[in-house]
Amino acid sequence: MKALIFAAGLGERMRPLTDTTPKPLLRVGGKPLIEWHLEKLAALGIRDVVVNTSWLADQFPAALGNGARWNLRLHFAFEGDTPLETGGGMLNALPLLGDAPFLLVNGDVWTDLDFATLPRAPRGLAHLVLVDRPPQATQGDFALDADGCVRADGDHTLTYAGIGVYRPQLLDGWRACIATFRLANGKPKFPLAPLLRAHMACGAITGEHHRGRWTDVGTPERLARLDAELRGDA
Length: 234
Fold this sequence. Notes:
Helix content: 10-25%
Structural class: alpha/beta
Strand content: 25-35%
Radius of gyration: 17 Å
Number of strands: 15
């Protein structure tokens, strides 16, 4: 099994910190955010990790090397100077991921989720990790049925954690699900959510509710709070 780490975003809400450092390389608890993921992926037995990059892309190989220190092989999928969003970023990385299901994790989240509990192969096209809506979220992303299917709407919506197991086939026929898209760097740029919603209608997206710790490190304040928690200062 391979893994994909989304690390291409501009981190605009994190400025001025991200003016000189990509958000996944910002440090919490004594190490960059992305290293927390790399350690967990290595412990899971994953050996090949694709890191998609755009903003300050050169800093990733400089900071992480080839992944040997975690017994990993890192592959950097450069999107170009303009990030391709989640759907375009995944499409751009597919040649490095192969045909088997892969684990996806956003480079700007932190969680205590044990990746070993995730299915190696989703029942449908994707298996998403959902969490309770954080204080900054006015509404959730998706709902979770009792049978484990993720739905676009529901009475109680949860937030997508930026973690899941995906089949590459989710991107098959993506143009039919994306009404409009732009090209950036000569590549398609589009979000992943409309594609997921299109497949939810036929029960092809499953999920689980993680009730443990999870943080979307989206502002300097949340970064500082997480750093203090991990260092035991909070």
